[in-house]
Description:
This protein is of the alpha/beta class. The chain has a single domain, classed as 3-Layer(aba) Sandwich (Rossmann fold). The protein has helices at about 30-45, 55-70, 90-95, 115-120; strands at about 1-10, 50-55, 75-80, 105-110, 135-140, 150-160. It has a 6-stranded mixed sheet.
Amino acid sequence: MKQLTLIRHAKSSWDNPDLRDFDRPLNPRGERDLPLMAARVKAMGLIPGRLYYSGATRTAVTARSLAQTLNLADERCMAIPEMYEACWETLLNLLQGQPDSLSSILLVGHNPGLAELGAYLSATPTPHFPTSAVQHLMLNVLGWSELSEGCGAVQWFDYPKLHT
């Protein structure tokens, strides 16, 4: 049995129209929601063997905050360039190439790729996957290469507006 946690980056800013999408920072709501989301992930005991994230500014900031809250060593956290604007198939291929010694992985990325990956693995569409959303899946596989449609079940789905 493997575990996968999917987290969409915290809310980002559109204040500077000249800034590349890749470089957009968090906005005040994202900065407020991020520590609360990270604390809920920690409270649920979702401590991954590896944390992978897109190199975009908003995902890197989200991942660093999570890593700090979860007390993850730097070597367990890695930016993956292919995760920026990745489709679910790209994310699936990334996961399928992971060593079986890892029992849990956390991905911090973007929509629609994350939501579609979660829907594929659980065979359950997620109608809304907002910023700072967390979806945790239990995967009925022994090895990451075995990931396939419907192999997982959503154990937990959370996002900030559920707590306001």
